Amino acid sequence: MRAKICRFILCKVLGWTLVGEKPAEEKLIFLAAPHTSIWDFVMGYLFYGAMGGHLTTMIKKEAFVFPLNFILRAMGAFPIDRSHPQKMLMSVMHEMRKPGTFHLVICPEGTRKAVAKWKTGYHTIASNCNIPVYLTGFDYANKRIGIFSRYELAGTAREDTDRIQEIYRSYNLTGLHKDMYIA
Predict the structure, then answer these.
(1) Of 32, 59, 87, 124, which one has the greatest count of Cβ atoms within 10 A?
(2) What is the span of the domain harbouring residue 156?
């Protein structure tokens, strides 16, 4: 029922097109870009809900204020302390190793502001937990959202992240706030 409601809202009410299919892996990381608005979280929730999946998302701890904290947690978000990135990575890897499905979405830009160099924490998690990475994104200009490809880690965290940024450039995606995205 949740999938039908999410699909109805996203496709029929908002007019978006879904791209790709839900991966079969039990554990994985989705990279999501461009990240220019809090609405990206809502759109991602509706998208993956429409595919019958449930995402786990990291959001800065400052967003978890009453009553928003209850809504965010119900939608699969958990708070992160950005002042302690190593501790946060260890915590996520611990959760990833537990039994059950864990589909984590990470915005490699790390913020809703324009950044030239994306963060590499996803690489640490994926390589240490031996899980795949999928490239997903939003195209607000064309109302297209989806899973575009699977990316095989092949180099250092910086090398892979630079390659991924190149791939995202080729997707020609547009964020909700166009001036806040540098692929």
Answers:
(1) 32
(2) 2-180
Count Cβ atoms below 10 Å from residue 127 Cβ, excluding itself.
14
DSSP string, 90-127: HHHHHHHTSSS-EEEEE-TT-SSS--SS---HHHHHHH
| Beta pairing class for 144-151 and 133-139 | antiparallel
pLDDT tens, residue by residue, 35-62: 999 899 899 999 999 999 999 888 888 8
Concatenated DSSP letters for 159-178?
A: HHHHHHHHHHHHHT---SSG
CATH number, residue 86: 3.40.1130.10
- As a whole number of angstroms, the distance between CA 150 and CA 153 comes to 10
| 3-state DSSP assignment of residue 23 | coil
Query: Coil, helix or strand for 17?
Result: strand
